[in-house]
Amino acid sequence: MKIKFIILYTACFFVSSIIDVKSNVSKNEEINSLSKNINSPSIVNQENADSKYGKTKFELVEVKQISNNKYQDSIVSRLKSLRVEIDEKNIYINNISAKYSSDKSDSKRFFRRNYVYNYYTDYLYKNYNVDVKKEVNYLEISYEDAQKYPFKDFFLEGGVTVFMNDYLLLQYSDYIITFKKSSNKFSEKEISTAEILINKSSLRQKGFYVHDSCFVKNENTTFKIIAIEKIVNKNNKGNWYFGLPIIILKNNEKRELYRNDNLVFKFYDNCPADGYGRLVAKGNYFTIEQISCVDFLFVRSYITFKIGNDNSVFIHKYSEEYTDRSDPNKVIPTKFWTVNDFGKLNFEDVSEKFLMKLRQTKPKI
User: Fold this and answer.
1) Is the confidence at residue 38, as pLDDT, over 70?
2) Alpha carbon distance 157, 154 (integer Å)
3) Which residue in 20, 39, 169, 321 has the most C-beta neighbors within 10 A?
4) Is 99 helix (H, G, I), strand (E, B) or coil?
5) C-alpha 155: how far from its chain's center?
């Protein structure tokens, strides 16, 4: 028991040391803004930036536990679902943004403690051939943003994170999450092209796969509805999926008709729900099922769309079923909203944000 306590204490001490490793960098290494801009590392370039949105995608490389604590599958599954993008001014984690600046520091001064310095230098060099023995590049966000979710969970104290040779390191508790700047040019524009969406091998080469699909028919045409996900998240032990893009294809022409990246809810750290559930089709209707949280309730939601004979796609109904996490047997009435509540709204205009606002309104019967 005493040995276990010592191991746990050492692990916690190590983690806390890493977290506060940058608390004094901004005070000790003030550089004027002109010098900062000249010396900052190149994060976004035209070669791999999304030409429409100006964002560079960062692909997950691995999630590494840095202590001897029990490995938590649920935590790792959720960390693997993180989505990171960067443009010239902002860093985005699960589509939540914060402005950043980039700078560099003497490595020993940055990591402060020798064993933290030794761990990072060894980890980066052995795994990614990145040498930070003398100098380390980093990103820094404002104090205000560093206190907000999700950055307070994944940035080190002081609102900083290591960015070196295209590798971005985030940290959650005793897990280091390593991302690398995408070189596959899989942008929003590219994913909407028929060749990538229909050709499974091309999709796989870009690091994605078709996670789920269904077929819907109107009087004239058959449509294929697909949900795509990153291969790195495939078959995760928790079976949790978040933020999946939903794409509608005209099956006979095998090309994209509509796309929506904001229907499947994003991951939230305080919610132990499963996220995306499945696609269900009936006639010229299809439904996206998923599970999320509201306060201390599990919420099973159903977003139903109708495809008209003119190939228009609009939301038909949104409904929610509730389960009290502390009292699963408690009966809570189901709520549903229809066109009487939101009018005729196109598929591409429906988002998580819109549905969260709709949830605050009383349904019209």
Assistant:
1) no
2) 9
3) 169
4) strand
5) 15
Q: Over 80: is that where the pLDDT of 87 sits?
A: yes
Contacts of 135 (CB under 8 A, 6+ apart): 104, 105, 106, 107
Residue 85 CA: distances (Å) to CA of 59, 176, 242, 243: 9, 17, 16, 14
The radius of gyration of the chain's CA atoms, rounded to the nearest angstrom, is 23
Sign of the dihedral defined by the CA atoms of residues 66, 123, 41, 177, in that order: negative
Reading the block at residue 259, the tokens are: 């796309």
* pLDDT, tens only, 151-204: 999 998 788 899 988 999 998 988 899 999 875 444 444 444 434 444 566 566
For the cut 60, the answer to whether the pLDDT of residue 42 exceeds it is: no
Give the residue among 236, 240, 224, 229 at the shortest CA–CA distance from 293: 240
For all residues of the chain together, what is the average pLDDT?
78
* CA–CA distance, 204 with 206 (Å, rounded to integer): 5
**138, 132, 102, 106: which is closest to 119 by C-alpha?**
132
> Which of 269, 311, 262 lies closest to 288 in space, CA to CA?
262
CA–CA dist 36, 18 (Å, integer): 24
- Laid out side by side, the sheet with 222-230 consists of 208-217, 222-230, 246-250, 255-260
Q: What is the largest CA-CA distance in the chain?
A: 72
Give the tens place of pLDDT for each residue, 275-288.
Answer: 888 999 999 999 99
Rounded distance between C-alpha atoms, residue 169 and residue 51, angstroms: 25
Phi, psi of 188 (to 5 degrees): -60, -35
What is the pLDDT averaged over residues 85-105?
Answer: 91
Dihedral sign computed on CA atoms, order 83, 86, 91, 95:
negative
Residue 214 is which amino acid? C
DSSP single-letter state for residue 152? H
Q: What are phi and psi of 352, to 5 degrees?
A: -60, -40
CA distance 85 to 87: 7
Work out the number of other CB atoms within 10 angstroms of the CB of residue 58. Answer: 25
Closest CA to 27 of 133, 91, 115, 105: 105
